[in-house]
Amino acid sequence: MGDDCCKSVKVFAPATVANVVCGFDVLGFAVYAPGDEVIMRLTDEAGVKIKAIHGDEGKLPLDPAKNTVSAAVIDYLQAIGEPERGVEITLFKKMPVGSGLGSSAASTVAGLFAINTLLEERLPREALLPFAMAGEQLACGQGHADNVAPALMGGFVLIRSYDPLDVIRLHTPPGLVCALIHPHLEVATRDARRIIRQQVSLKDAVQQWGNIAGLVSGLYREDHALISRSLQDVIIEPVRSMLIPDFYTLKQKALDQGALGFGISGSGPAVFALSTDQDTACSIRDAVQEHLRTLGIESDGYVSQVNAEGPRIM
Amino acid sequence: MGDDCCKSVKVFAPATVANVVCGFDVLGFAVYAPGDEVIMRLTDEAGVKIKAIHGDEGKLPLDPAKNTVSAAVIDYLQAIGEPERGVEITLFKKMPVGSGLGSSAASTVAGLFAINTLLEERLPREALLPFAMAGEQLACGQGHADNVAPALMGGFVLIRSYDPLDVIRLHTPPGLVCALIHPHLEVATRDARRIIRQQVSLKDAVQQWGNIAGLVSGLYREDHALISRSLQDVIIEPVRSMLIPDFYTLKQKALDQGALGFGISGSGPAVFALSTDQDTACSIRDAVQEHLRTLGIESDGYVSQVNAEGPRIM
């Protein structure tokens, strides 16, 4: 163990857009911006410790058992039979908590990727997923995989089934650029889930599964027009959009600027648009942020390619 | 017009499996067996006539306005501005009516493909679809496209949206073999639709759209294991299976023989299984037919590759 002492690594893990309009609870993709960073160091002192958390405005717990990053690392170390490892974590939150951007997923994935890198990739990358999902359970009260899976694996990821867990990395066409806008509103994921109807009409469900099938086909065919036509949600968006002021105006402004599609990122309040180039994505971001300002709502805006690689060592 | 007189063509159009387990109302694929045949001849005498129908046991109307084949041809001729064309149709029904095999779709598509061939492909193939759908409306009281679209275009076809109509030819992996078994039971499509619940739980809907997304991904990746895992239906099959005696035993027997998946073809009573080779498909067909015989139910069995080409001139 002594040989590893003081080895350290810095890891970036990406924000993610869950649901992707027509894929409620089963689809997500990763971006390059924003994302969280973790510096992790192996120490001689047994146990996982959080040295510091920067950028969270004091919101996240420092208790290793309660913080999702350290808790996931503890689970991982137990699973590989090294519960006594000494680990020191510094977390740099570079995105807001509770934003719909997969904030907790990014941190947790960065931590797991870091420990697995330090321990010479003891587990294959996809085997880290259950630990990341347990982290989500701790953070959100729901062990959903639609943020952690794309954060960990990169690109567009389908969670075909939760029980048994079946995660499929879809083809991610090159050149897709995502605009993400986080309006400074409070929308708790738990509330956002609560307002969704638990019964849906078969007619709407048929439309939705036609669209997700169209989207998946569009990704494999790299067919932007088909991707665009498929980015429609007749079930969740009509309800959740009520939590975002002027949602349909924001959507229209994004589409006017050339978005392939526009929707709520995860459970919001962040919104996203997909487009085929950087300039279009920047125009979309600007138009949406400008309209939010007219409503007196400040926001953060990000533009980046869809991230097909996932976490990376910095 | 005289130059064309007496030109004739014989066309085969395939049976189709609609729904494909997890794609209710939006997915279908074509096979090579069974299928219907049409002989069509241009005549000097104005108007569309049915010369004869073979193999229907007198069930289908000979009145050109009521028969789906002739009615679709009449629509087509009107749309291209040649309502006075003389056409004589002979229809060979080579599969049972009301079986869940897309019987009316096969006949209608054969007729439309024949007239369009005789008139030198006046319309591109996909432009024939609306005429075929109108034929389905006449035959089934529903203008569904999940039989006519694959019968016309071949392979696996997605109807992403009905309004506006958006039909996507998915990738069809080579080597998929379909076993089709038609038990001699009466299940009217209208009844089979009536028993389906019009409200579904969001939880079931999420499972279903995870599965259809998995199936589409599996087709593009040519991933048999993923196709197999995705061929699950938590919404329609639990209800419609009640119309087919011992459905779940038949399913288990098919899976035991190595089927990738097993389900109801369209609205039944035909059932189908997908597999990766001819021998497996034959074993599945035999096992299912044998069990049906123990219940005192006779059946027709067919085995063929998935048909990626659609109708063809014989």
TrEMBL record, chains A, B:
<dbReference type="InterPro" id="IPR006204">
    <property type="entry name" value="GHMP_kinase_N_dom"/>
</dbReference>
<keyword id="KW-0963">Cytoplasm</keyword>
<keyword id="KW-0791">Threonine biosynthesis</keyword>
<comment type="function">
    <text>Catalyzes the ATP-dependent phosphorylation of L-homoserine to L-homoserine phosphate.</text>
</comment>
<keyword id="KW-0808">Transferase</keyword>
<dbReference type="InterPro" id="IPR014721">
    <property type="entry name" value="Ribsml_uS5_D2-typ_fold_subgr"/>
</dbReference>
<keyword id="KW-0547">Nucleotide-binding</keyword>
<feature type="domain" description="GHMP kinase N-terminal">
    <location>
        <begin position="68"/>
        <end position="155"/>
    </location>
</feature>
<comment type="pathway">
    <text>Amino-acid biosynthesis; L-threonine biosynthesis; L-threonine from L-aspartate: step 4/5.</text>
</comment>
<dbReference type="InterPro" id="IPR020568">
    <property type="entry name" value="Ribosomal_Su5_D2-typ_SF"/>
</dbReference>
<dbReference type="InterPro" id="IPR006203">
    <property type="entry name" value="GHMP_knse_ATP-bd_CS"/>
</dbReference>
<dbReference type="InterPro" id="IPR000870">
    <property type="entry name" value="Homoserine_kinase"/>
</dbReference>
<protein>
    <recommendedName>
        <fullName>Homoserine kinase</fullName>
        <ecNumber>2.7.1.39</ecNumber>
    </recommendedName>
</protein>
<dbReference type="Pfam" id="PF00288">
    <property type="entry name" value="GHMP_kinases_N"/>
</dbReference>
<feature type="binding site">
    <location>
        <begin position="96"/>
        <end position="106"/>
    </location>
    <ligand>
        <name>ATP</name>
    </ligand>
</feature>
<dbReference type="Pfam" id="PF08544">
    <property type="entry name" value="GHMP_kinases_C"/>
</dbReference>
<keyword id="KW-0067">ATP-binding</keyword>
<keyword id="KW-0028">Amino-acid biosynthesis</keyword>
<comment type="similarity">
    <text>Belongs to the GHMP kinase family. Homoserine kinase subfamily.</text>
</comment>
<dbReference type="GO" id="GO:0016301">
    <property type="term" value="F:kinase activity"/>
</dbReference>
<keyword id="KW-0418">Kinase</keyword>
<feature type="domain" description="GHMP kinase C-terminal">
    <location>
        <begin position="216"/>
        <end position="292"/>
    </location>
</feature>
<dbReference type="InterPro" id="IPR013750">
    <property type="entry name" value="GHMP_kinase_C_dom"/>
</dbReference>
<dbReference type="InterPro" id="IPR036554">
    <property type="entry name" value="GHMP_kinase_C_sf"/>
</dbReference>
